[in-house]
C-alpha cells in the first residue's frame, strides 16, 4: 500500500498510532524519533516516525531500549522487510504495523474531508458536512459508553462509519479551553436516559 507523505502534529500522530500524546512528546524529547519543526514551528512527525512510535511502545515491555534501537537500525537497513528479527526469540511483524498505521492515517484523512466548521452553525463547533451534528459530542458519547448503534439511532443523519471517524478526528484535534456544553451551542436535548450506578459490595 502506497502511503502519502504527510507531516503529523503530535496529537495527530497519537491518534494514528494509538499512543498517548504525552508518550509522543516523550519520544521526541528522548530522541527516539527525530525532532522536526513544522512551518508554524510546532513539532512535526513523518510516517516513519509513526512506525517507530508504534513499535517502540508496542515492544516496550519485551525489549530493552538498546534492543529496540537495534530493531530500528535493522528496519532502516531493510526498509521493505515484512518481518524483522528483534532477538533470538522475537520476530516483529513490521508489515502489519505499517498496514494498521496506513488504515488509521487514511481514516484521519477521510474524517478531515467530511468534518468542518461552518460559520453560524453551532457557534463554529466542528460538525459533519451537511449536518448540525457536533463531532466532539459524538466522540464524547462513545467515550462515555454509548454504542455506535445507539448514537446512530439518536442521530439518523450519521452512519456507523461517521461515528468511528468522530473518534479519530477528536483525538487528532483536541479541544482547547473549557469544554463547551451542548446548550452553549444552541442544541437542545430532546430526551435523556439516566443510568444507575451499580452499588458497591
Automatic annotation (TrEMBL):
Region Disordered, residue ranges: 178-201
Domain of life: Bacteria
Pfam families in alphabetical order: DUF433 (PF04255)
Positions with biased composition (Basic residues): 191-201
Entry-linked InterPro entries: DUF433, Homeodomain-like_sf, WH-like_DNA-bd_sf
Protein name per the record: DUF433 domain-containing protein
Native organism: Metarhizobium album
Amino acid at each position: 500500500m502506497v502511503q502519502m507523505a504527510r507531516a503529523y502534529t503530535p496529537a495527530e500522530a497519537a491518534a494514528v498510532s494509538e499512543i498517548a500524546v504525552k508518550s509522543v512528546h516523550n519520544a521526541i524529547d528522548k530522541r527516539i524519533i527525530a525532532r522536526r519543526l513544522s512551518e508554524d514551528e510546532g513539532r512535526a512527525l513523518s510516517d516513519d516516525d509513526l512506525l517507530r512510535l508504534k513499535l517502540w511502545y508496542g515492544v516496550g515491555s519485551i525489549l530493552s531500549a538498546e534492543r529496540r534501537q537495534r530493531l530500528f537500525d535493522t528496519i532502516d537497513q531493510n526498509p521493505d522487510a515484512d518481518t524483522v528479527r528483534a532477538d533470538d526469540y522475537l520476530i516483529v511483524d513490521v508489515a502489519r504495523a505499517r498496514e494498521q498505521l496506513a488504515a488509521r492515517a487514511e481514516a484521519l484523512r477521510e474524517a478531515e474531508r467530511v468534518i468542518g466548521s461552518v460559520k453560524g452553525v453551532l457557534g463554529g463547533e466542528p460538525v459533519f458536512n451537511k449536518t448540525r451534528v457536533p463531532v466532539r459530542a459524538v466522540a464524547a458519547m462513545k467515550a462515555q459508553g454509548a454504542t455506535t448503534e445507539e448514537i446512530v439511532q439518536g442521530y439518523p443523519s450519521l452512519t456507523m462509519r461517521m461515528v468511528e471517524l468522530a473518534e479519530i478526528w477528536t483525538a487528532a484535534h483536541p479541544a482547547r479551553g473549557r469544554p463547551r456544553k451542548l446548550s452553549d451551542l444552541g442544541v437542545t436535548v430532546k430526551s435523556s436516559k439516566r443510568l444507575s450506578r451499580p452499588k458497591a459490595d
